[in-house]
Design goal:
Layout (H helix, E strand, L loop, with lengths): L1 H52 L2 H23 L30 E6 L2 E6 H4 L18 H37 L1 H16 L2 H11 L4 H11 L2 H14 L3 H8 L4 H9 L4 H24 L11 H9 L10 H25 L1 H5 L1
Antiparallel strand pairs: 1-2
Helix pairs in contact: 1-13, 2-4, 2-13, 4-5, 4-7, 4-8, 4-11, 4-12, 4-13, 6-7, 8-11, 9-10, 11-12, 11-13, 12-13
């Protein structure tokens, strides 16, 4: 009996240690479960971000696009000139930048080919405008090319983004509805798509420019009419692929409405394809706007866009090539970077495509 009384405190202390260890394990397991639940919620987008950051070309392209957008917003405010201000006494000034001219670059000098040979000209020195600086030079009417380049970039980006957003909403809705209902509704809607797609985009846009008053909103309207077809086809294909999946059938069985199934169940599963298609559509819209402005069907003066700037500078390309370089470089960077970004996003949202 005494032996039992002596051993029992020891057993009791051991059981206390066991309970303490058990509670510690349970607490750790609870923390682990919460962490795994959080990782499950954030895991998909964390993986998306990781795959995107591993695509160096897409990251660099996004950084360049962000930089261009920043200058498009702030660039016209940095300069002391407006985009429409003219000074014929300071026309055709070559680029001149403070501090860099001390290094022997961007000094305002330009080489002009003449019948008697190459002649070096410096309009700043010739006219005594030593306190004047044009970072990108001035055009044939004495307007600041720096201000006009970023103002034109702002207009081109605005037109492209507004047109693509509206196209995305209309084309996405059109394609999802067509694919969801199928049958004669899908057939009728697809015949309409084929008619629109059968007419060349340039013909539609040109006719609109002739009928309507040329301007920013006319170009946006023209782009809206012609750029939604690609988005609708992608949305329809995704709907046809997903509408017979188990989670859609379960949602339909539980009495979900067509609106809920289309926009709450199917649409979130098309985010990757929608973003990728949008990134490919933006450079297409920018190029279309630039082309229309280049051929004289775009932005009317004194407003400017990248296309109109290139068109104006094209006439003096052989004598003053610096005037065409800024809008051409900005347009080329936008086209290249948006395409590289779209490629990166496509590989990010579809690893099978990247592996192929």
């Amino acid at each position: 009996m005494s032996d039992i009384l002596i051993k029992s405190p020891i057993d009791f202390s051991l059981s206390q240690n066991s309970l303490s260890a058990l509670f510690s394990v349970l607490k750790k397991n609870e923390t682990t479960v919460k962490s795994e639940s959080l990782n499950a919620r954030l895991g998909y987008w964390s993986e998306i971000v990781y795959r995107f950051l591993s695509h160096k070309a897409a990251v660099v392209s996004l950084a360049i696009i962000t930089l261009i957008v920043f200058f498009a917003i702030t660039g016209p405010n940095i300069s002391a000139y407006t985009y429409s201000e003219q000074n014929l006494a300071q026309k055709n000034y070559a680029p001149r930048i403070p501090k860099l001219e001390k290094l022997g670059i961007f000094t305002g000098e330009e080489k002009i080919d003449t019948t008697s040979g190459v002649r070096i000209n410096n309009g700043y020195v010739k006219n005594g405008d030593l306190s004047v600086y044009y970072w990108f030079g001035s055009d044939t009417l004495g307007r600041d090319i720096w201000t006009r380049t970023w103002e034109g970039t702002q207009v081109s980006l605005y037109i492209a983004f507004v047109a693509i957003i509206i196209d995305m909403l209309f084309g996405l809705t059109f394609g999802l509805i067509s694919g969801y209902f199928g049958g004669w509704i899908d057939g009728l809607m697809q015949r309409f798509v084929e008619i629109i797609n059968g007419i060349p985009n340039l013909v539609i846009v040109t006719l609109l420019m002739i009928v309507l008053k040329p301007g920013m909103y006319t170009i946006i309207f023209a782009l809206i009419l012609t750029h939604w077809v690609g988005m609708s086809r992608i949305a329809r294909a995704e709907m046809l692929k997903l509408k017979n999946r188990e989670f859609i059938l379960a949602s339909r069985t539980l009495g979900a409405s067509s609106f809920h199934i289309i926009f709450k169940d199917v649409l979130p599963n098309c985010v990757g394809q929608v973003i990728t298609r949008t990134m490919f559509s933006i450079p297409s819209a920018i190029f279309m706007e630039a082309f229309l402005s280049f051929v004289g069907l775009g932005i009317p003066v004194p407003q400017c866009s990248l296309g109109s700037l290139i068109s104006e500078a094209f006439n003096s390309f052989t004598t003053h090539p610096y005037q065409i370089l800024p809008p051409v470089i900005v347009l080329a960077l936008l086209m290249l970077c948006f395409n590289l970004l779209a490629d990166g996003l496509r590989e990010t949202f579809d690893p099978k495509f990247a592996a192929a």
